[in-house]
Amino acid sequence: MISEVKRITAPFDDATARALRAGDQVLLSGRIIAARDAAHKRMVEALDRGEPLPVDLHGAVVYYVGPSPARPGFVIGAAGPTTAGRMDAYAPRLMREAGLKGMIGKGYRKPEVVEAMRECGVPYLAAVGGAGALIARCIRKYTVLAYPELGPEALAEMEVEDFPAVVVMDCEGGNYYEQGQAPYRQR
Description:
With about 190 residues, the chain is of the alpha/beta class. The chain is built from six helices and seven strands; from the N terminus they run βαβαβαβαβαββα.
């Protein structure tokens, strides 16, 4: 059963991240990081070289998004979620070594990502795929922080207000994808 809507703020502290449960509906406000696979790859390569990341990810919530260009008078174009599995090769290191504390995307995660989430106390939230134009209305500011040559895949900061999402995997092992499908499965 889906709970009441929770209003939360990013970046996350440990208590906020650990209090979220699979099935929680949230409205997220604050600062989140926009990054897709190309930016994730570059950040992990920087870690491999022993270099600092271009942004402090401690407590950060990353949104897997590659927004379309903004029309005149708008902050951003459509900003729908990217399939999270594309970041699975990189997410565990960013949680363990850089302090990443939340992720927003769509779709399932690999077991090694789920294990890192449990270990580090990191929830995974889903945004509605196909609703990029509506989600963009929640984005108040978009600032490229690093890798501008990647275009829409650049590492950026977004200021969001009442960004709607659902906690689909929590750090205790709760999985809303499984819970939501359970009543419809035949045994």
